[in-house]
Structures are given as structure tokens and as C-alpha cells.
Amino acid sequence: MIRSLLAVDGVVAVCHFRDDGALVEGYGRMPDQQLQALARFAHDYKRLVQGNIDQLAMFTGIDGWTPPGGWIVHGVGMTVCGVGNLVCVLENAAGNPSEVMRELAEAARY
Amino acid sequence: MANLDQLMAIDGALAAFEMNERGELQQHRVVEDSAFDERTLDLLGHMCVANMAIATMQARGWEASFGKQGFYPVNGFTLVGLKWSAVTNGCHAVVMSNASADYEKAYEVLGVGGGAA
Amino acid sequence: MLTAELMRQPGVIAAGEYSYRGDRFSYKGEIDDEMARMASIMCRATTMSEHMQVGMLEQFCPDCGSSPANGWIVRGPMFTVCNVANVFAFLDNQSASLNDIMALMHKRLADEGTDLV
Is the pLDDT at B50 greater than 90, yes or no? Predict the structure, then answer.
């Protein structure tokens, strides 16, 4: 199912991870070891973002921050996008994070 | 302002380093046969900057909620690992063994005021 | 109970415990329910971040003795927050011994699991 995300422009890898950070399934132009590391990173980052967004909601008193809809880390040449327990890596020159986030949100429902 | 030799003179010090505002390693000292290489210290430097930024955000939010109390500005963060601790303030950090860790001394050398009398 | 023991140490203003799931907290000391709730959220977030960082350091330097994470300290001008496992303490810098408090927390929490549940 998540393999279809590789068809989105620019996406080079996609992973589904468990709540303990273990890789459930992963596809793309990465060796298995890197896909496992990506799953672990995404799991940690999901927790981190959850923690920060809880604090933002707490300090500002503004509704609508939590629970987080996802996260995007934009690097020089690559971007990592996460929604729920799914994560994608895309090449900036070839893809659009907005489209990837939409597709991830759709896939994360199942 | 701390210097690296002063930091290395702290009992149990394993490494000391200076980073820039992004956390990139500028200069460092390590004990002989140290397991800490430049690559690891550079990563640790980035963590020091990230942790100080998060702690500063928390202190700001806390004091905005409950009034000024003495948490802000944060002038020290310590990451305690299994066998060692990394103590940072400003652009300096010292890594010291947990077996003999003297946090108060580390903060003093790092130029942090307000220690125990 | 560790929080009660911490409150008996000089300079400890408040001490608390939170669940890693984020669904409960308890505390003692000179803070109210809302402050304790917010402190628990902040401490939990920092602890999660620390575990991630120590995991990364372990990958960079497997023999450095980084993992598992063993706590963190935030030093402000007047007050310090220290955390080991899922227990935190607020200290008055002038009257508390950070080294003694950390040693006590490490001693009492030495057998805590590291899987954050």
C-alpha cells in the first residue's frame, strides 16, 4: 500500500514504523539498514514534535496545534516528511512537500 | 569566559570543546585514548545548541505563564548519559565522567553564576 | 517515595513524577496543580529528546558509554531543574547542592527501565 507513495514526484523512500520505532515496511532507493534508521529517526522525531507542540499549545493557550498533523524537515537538497507512523524522503529538486504531505495524510488513514 | 584547558582541568573531564552558534566544532581537547572523536564532538555540539534553545524556550514560556522566577535566561544545560555527562553554556562544553561528575564545578568554570553558597 | 525524600533535601522547592505516556503526574512542594502539569509536560518532552540524542550518539560512537540516557539538568540564574528517569526536581541554586541531588536521584532510580513506558 505505502509502496505507491514512491510514485509521487521526488519521493525516494517511504517507511511505515511501529510505535516502538521498529520498521514495519519500507521501500525506495535506500538499503534496508538506512530504511531502519529512517524509521527510527521518524519515530523519535514524531515524539519530539509531539512534545514541542504540547508545549506550544500549553504556553499560548491557542487551540488547533495538537495533536500534530505531521512534520517536515527541509534540508538543502532533501526533505523528510512525516504523518502519523509514515515517513517519506524526497528530493527537493524533483518534488513538492505539499503534495507529499497530502499523500501521506491519505495513506496514514489506512 | 571558559577556556578549554580550564575545562579539561575539571576532575573527571574527558573532553572539552568550543562550538559556533550553529553547534559546529571549532576547537577541542580530549584525554589520551579518548573514545570521543571530532565527529562525535561535532554532533554533541549541535545537541548542546539544540538543548539550550529548547530549554530557553521552556524557561521563556514558563515565566510568561507564571511570572519571572529565575529560570530565564538559561545559562547551562547538562545531558547525562550512561557513563558521562556533557555540560554546556555559551559556546563551550565539557564532557566528564559520571563517576566523578561535579556539575557545580563545571558550571562555575563555564562562567555560570548563582551556584550554591 | 523519592519525591518526598527529595523534598527533605536542602534547597529543593518542588519534586514530581510523570508518566512517559503523558497521562498522569504527581508532585510535592511549592508549586500548584497547573505548574506541576506544565512542568511534567516540559520535562517529558526534554526526556524524550534526550533519549533520541543519546541514541544518535550511540550510533556515532558505540564505545563512548552514551546509552541509555541518564537524565538532564537545566541551569537558570536562580533555579535549576534536574531530571532522572521520569522524576524531576526544582532547586534553589543558593541553598541546594546539585551534585548531591543528582547523586540521590541516580541512586534511587538506578534500576529504572529505559524503554520509556
Answer: yes
State whether A52 and B54 contact (CB < 8 Å). yes
List, in sequence order, every residue forming a beta bridge with A89; answer none if it has no partner. Answer: A13, A80
pLDDT-derived band at B117 (thresholds 50, 70, 90) equals very low
Task: Identify which of A25, A45, A43, A44 has the alpha carbon closest to the alpha carbon of residue A35.
Answer: A25
| 3-state percent helix, strand, coil for chain A, nearest multiple of 5 | 45, 25, 30
B70 part of contact set with chain C, CB < 8 Å: yes
Q: Which of B35, B79, B84 lies closest to C53 in CB terms?
A: B79
Yes or no: is domain B4-109 CATH 3.30.450.30? Answer: yes
Cis peptide before C68 (omega within 30 of 0): yes
Distance CA C87, CA C104 (A): 12
C22 contacts A54? CB cut-off 8 A? yes
Q: Which residue has the cell 568554570?
A: B109
CA-nearest residue of chain A to C42? A55
**Closest residue in C to A54 (Cα–Cα):** C41
ipTM exceeding cut-off 0.85 for this assembly? no
Tell me the domains of chain C and their CATH numbers.
2-108 (3.30.450.30)
Where do the domains of chain B lie? 4-109
- Nearest in space to B114 (alpha carbons), one of A97, C93, C27, C50: C93
| Residue A16: exposure state from Cβ atoms within 10 A (0-12, 13-18, ≥19) | buried
Q: For residue range B2-29, list pLDDT tens digits in order.
A: 799 999 999 999 999 999 999 999 999 9
DSSP code for C113: -
CA distance readout (Å), A53 to A45, B2, B81, B82, C72: 12, 35, 26, 28, 21
Contact yes or no for C64 and B36 at CB 8 A: yes
